[in-house]
Each structure stands twice: as structure tokens, then as C-alpha cells.
Specification:
mainly alpha; 0% strand
């Protein structure tokens, strides 16, 4: 028995950890207990030295000293303040009126607002709860299918996991040893492509089942001109001018500028032009813009400005992700103050929730460090590497198996737990197979996004259930989420087939041809021997020393 334990310690530790997690033990304590118990067993069997646990304090204090993780409380606090500042209500009301006249308009509004909340909050719970409270009753009132409405809200809330400033991308970058800024750049385009796929699904449903996604009735369209029209024409003209301004500004960027920088700056140029035109029209009362055009412009400016404050400064290299998070939290406080929503109660709630989530993350990370100390001590990483490197199909076989593994584990574990347990074991194997770790991290983040929508344990489903009306059954929420899980799986396949959608936004590192490197040394005249300095010269004080 002793010989069997000594020969198979790594797989036994891993299997024991899985069993504890499936039994429902708290993740942080299950990880730490496995690490300590099997560490003591390993010392008793002579596999590990007693000095193993002397490294434990340094590993734990290393977690506390990790500046990258400071971004987690900043972005969490920012999201919670924005959730309670009324921004979500204004966005949903305005965008709902904008898309209301077309079939599925409210569902499109939910997805678009979900993407904007994701780019400003980075917190799934805040997005799902806000949209569930505001949009779901309205969608049901105007005849939307319960499954479509609940699925759109639950899925759009999960965009906060893949669209920067996502919390999971911060953790993913830390576990893979990569820059958070690079991880954000890599996820920028896939996040909005996934948003487009969600919209595409709603378009398909509205075409095939028009009764499931009706347009808003005329009496519900409140943004109307005195002549009864919606004023959409002036909004289209303003949008065309803004897009043209953004394109022209983008053309002025130097050739070879990073794509993400060009996109951010072009967007901000277009937004600035819209804001200037709308402001001049309002203050001079020119009457050039409709009520809808003005409302949409002034409602979109604050969150878009906050997006630039956070992501723009990170992508342009002005601020680190931690500094960007601090600026975002400050911006959220200023927005709440401007809306006269900031008070002591709101601050206490936001700080309490931030402290709980941050403590949750840190405790899981400490448990993972204790577990990995023993697991690596018995060469568990070597066992995992041999297990995965030798899979048939090489790199693609590895990717298929890993994505299936993560998809299945997402039924039982959330994205933080997967990031701290699975990613550190998979990262070195992916690196050895020549897989770009930024691309790999974004791929896993999209896959782990399904953990929020997996029946029966998806957190996004629980969040929506907590605020949904009694007329919406739990089965409606579960069935409504399944098509969006399929869309996320499609997105995983697209990232594997078209890796450029992740890598095109990253700074290119020029390859160096080793064979063309030439080392030039200075010429030395060996025929003229150099004389050593005399004793007087060596001991003389330099001129001007006194």
C-alpha cells in the first residue's frame, strides 16, 4: 500500500481534490486541507522533506503582495457603485426606446446595455440583477416569450466576464504570468463579436417566431416629436457624422499602430463630435436634433467616457490595470454624485460587497497555493504534462480535451475556482506546445463563461431567479439559457479556427534572425604592449580633488 501511494501520489491528490469539491466542501478549505494532509503523508513516506512547509509563509505573503490583484476590489467597487447610481435604468430605458419600434427591440437593448455594463462594471451579478429588475417585467408585459427574455438577460450579463475590465481576465493573467493589459487587448474584439452573435440569435428568433419578440406598441414609445414621429432620422445623421469623424481620425494614426488603440481613439473621436453637436444644439436651441437623438447622446456619454477612462488609458499605455481600476472607481463615485445617488448607505453596501468578494478571491488563491505547494512537490505538474502532451492530435487534441474538461467542470465550479485550480496546471503544458498564452487565456475565459449559464448551478441563472416575477418558472430560465450556451460554444470554436481575432490586437514582437546577428568588437593592437601605470601615477590624487 505504501508503495502504491508513493508511486501514484500526484493522481491521488488530484482525485481527492475533485471528490472534496463534488461533495460540496468550501473550495478554499478543500484545497488547503488536501495540500496539508497529503504534504504530511508525503513527508512520512519520504517523498517530501520537512522543509516543504517552510516555504508556505512566503507563498501566502506573495499573494498579499501581488499588486495585480489590487485591480479586483477596484473594479468590483466601481461596478457596485454604478449598479446603484441609476445608470443601468437610464441606459435600458433609452436604448429600449431606440430599438423598440423593431421586432426584438427590447432584447437587442438588453444585449447592447449588457455589453456596455460589462465594459464599465466587470461584475456579472450587477448586470444580471439590474436588467432582471428593470427589463424582464417590461418584456413580459409586451408579450415577449419568457424563455427568450430570461435567456437574453442572463446571457448578456455574462458578457461582463469576457469584455474588459473583466475580473476573470485579471485572475487569468495572474495565473498565466502574463500582462493584464495584454489579456484585455486580446479579449477586446472577441467580446464584441460574442455580443454580435447574441444579437444574431435574437434576429433569427424574431424572424422565425415573430410573436416571441414583438415590437413596442406605439403608446409605449415615449420619445416622440410633436408631429408624432420618433425623430430617428436626425439620430441616423448624427451617427453617420460621428462614424465619419471616427474613420477620418483613424486614418491619421501612424501606420502600424496597434489595432485596439486605433479603435479606442476612433470611437472617442466620434463620441466627442456627437457630444459637441448635441451640446451646441441644446444650448443654442437650434432644433437640429430630435428628442431621441439628444437623449441617446447624453445618456451614452457618461458610460462611454468611463469606458475610455478605464480601458482607453490601459490600451494606450497611460495607466496599468490597477491604476485604471482606481480611476474607474473614482469616476463611478463622481457619476453617482452627479446623479445625487451617493450617500452613506450606498457606500457601505458597496464596500461591504467589495470586501466579501475580494476576501473570497484571496482565500481561494491561498488555498490553491497550499494545494499547489504539495502537488508540485510530488511532481504533479510533470504528471499533468505527460498526461496532456502525449494526447493524440498534438496541439489540437490538447485544445479539444482541455475545452471539454473545462466545460464539464464548469457545471460544478465557478470561474474563480477554475482559474485558480485548473489554469496553473494547463498553462505550462500549453506553453510547451507552442500555444500563445494570451490566446489560450481568452479561449478559456470564453469557455468558462458557460459556467454562469449551466443548468442547474449557473450563477447567472440564480441571480435572475432571485429577481424574476413568480410568473417566470425556473424551467423557463434554464431552457432560455441553453441556446446562449450553444452560442458561447460556437464562439470557442471560432477562436480556435480564427486565432487572429485575439492576436491581431496585441503588440507585435519582431522576430530576430539569429543567423543574421553580427557582433562587432573594437580592434585591439596586440603588437603594442601596454605598460602598467607607475607607482607615482597610481597613488597620485586626481587634479582638483582638494
Amino acid at each position: 500500500m505504501t508503495g502504491f501511494l508513493a508511486a501514484n501520489m500526484a493522481p491521488i491528490i488530484f482525485a481527492s481534490m475533485i471528490v472534496f469539491l463534488l461533495l460540496g466542501f468550501p473550495v478554499a478549505f478543500a484545497l488547503a486541507a488536501n495540500g496539508i494532509v497529503f504534504g504530511l503523508i508525503g513527508i512520512e513516506l519520504g517523498l517530501l522533506g520537512p522543509q516543504l512547509f517552510r516555504a508556505l509563509p512566503d507563498r501566502i505573503f506573495g499573494v498579499m503582495a501581488n499588486e495585480t490583484l489590487l485591480a479586483v476590489p477596484f473594479f468590483t467597487f466601481m461596478g457596485l457603485i454604478l449598479e446603484r447610481s441609476g445608470m443601468a435604468e437610464d441606459l435600458l430605458d433609452t436604448i429600449g426606446q431606440l430599438f423598440g419600434p423593431i421586432r426584438g427591440g427590447l432584447a437587442y437593448a438588453v444585449i447592447v446595455v449588457g455589453a456596455m455594463l460589462a465594459a464599465t462594471t466587470g461584475v456579472v451579478a450587477a448586470s444580471v440583477i439590474s436588467m432582471g429588475l428593470i427589463s424582464l417585467p417590461i418584456m413580459l408585459r409586451y408579450g415577449y416569450d419568457k424563455r427568450l427574455a430570461s435567456g437574453a438577460i442572463a446571457a448578456s450579463g455574462t458578457l461582463a466576464q469576457i469584455i474588459p475590465p473583466s475580473l476573470v481576465l485579471i485572475v487569468m493573467a495572474d495565473q498565466l504570468g502574463k500582462s493584464v493589459g495584454d489579456m484585455y487587448k486580446g479579449a477586446f474584439i472577441p467580446g464584441f463579436i460574442l455580443t454580435g452573435l447574441y444579437v444574431g440569435y435574437v434576429v433569427l428568433v424574431a424572424f422565425v417566431r415573430p410573436k416571441w419578440a414583438p415590437a413596442l406598441p406605439i403608446e409605449a414609445r415615449t420619445f416622440r416629436e410633436p408631429n408624432g414621429k420618433t425623430g430617428g432620422a436626425s439620430l441616423l445623421v448624427l451617427a453617420a457624422i460621428s462614424v465619419a469623424a471616427g474613420i477620418v481620425f483613424g486614418k491619421t494614426r501612424p501606420e502600424g499602430a496597434p489595432l485596439d488603440e486605433a479603435i479606442i481613439l476612433s470611437m472617442m473621436a466620434g463620441i466627442a463630435v456627437s457630444f459637441i453637436i448635441a451640446s451646441i444644439n441644446r444650448f443654442l436651441k437650434l432644433g437640429l436634433l430630435s428628442t431621441m437623438a439628444e437623449k441617446v447622446t447624453f445618456v451614452l456619454i457618461p458610460p462611454l467616457g468611463l469606458i475610455f477612462l478605464v480601458l482607453g488609458t490601459i490600451f494606450l499605455g497611460i495607466a496599468t490595470p490597477t491604476e485604471g481600476g482606481a480611476m474607474g472607481a473614482t469616476g463611478a463615485l463622481l457619476m453617482a454624485m452627479a446623479r445625487k445617488r451617493l450617500d452613506g448607505k450606498l457606500l457601505r453596501q458597496a464596500m461591504d460587497s467589495t470586501a466579501r468578494l475580494t476576501t473570497f478571491v484571496v482565500f481561494i488563491l491561498i488555498g490553491a497555493r497550499v494545494f499547489s505547494l504539495t502537488f508540485y512537490g510530488v511532481d504533479g505538474h510533470v504528471w499533468v504534462e505527460h498526461l496532456l502532451v502525449d494526447l493524440p492530435g498534438g496541439k489540437y487534441g490538447f485544445l479539444i480535451v482541455v475545452n471539454l474538461l473545462v466545460f464539464v467542470l464548469a457545471f460544478f465550479l465557478d470561474y474563480f475556482e477554475l482559474s485558480f485550480i485548473i489554469v496553473p496546471l494547463l498553462g505550462p503544458v500549453a506553453d510547451k506546445l507552442g500555444i500563445d498564452l494570451i490566446w489560450f487565456g481568452v479561449l478559456l475565459a470564453v469557455n468558462m463563461q458557460t459556467s454562469f449559464l449551466h443548468p442547474p448551478f449557473g450563477f447567472s441563472l440564480f441571480f435572475l431567479r432571485s429577481v424574476a416575477p413568480a410568473s417566470v418558472k425556473t424551467s423557463d430560465i434554464y431552457w432560455g439559457a441553453i441556446p446562449f450556451v450553444c452560442v458561447q460554444i460556437l464562439m470557442v470554436a471560432l477562436i480556435i479556427l480564427f486565432p487572429q481575432m485575439v492576436t491581431m490586437g496585441l503588440d507585435k514582437i519582431e522576430a530576430v534572425d539569429i543567423d543574421s546577428v553580427e557582433i562587432v568588437l573594437p580592434e585591439i593592437d596586440y603588437d603594442t604592449p601596454s605598460e602598467p601605470p607607475s607607482l607615482e601615477d597610481a597613488t597620485a590624487e586626481p587634479e582638483g580633488a582638494r
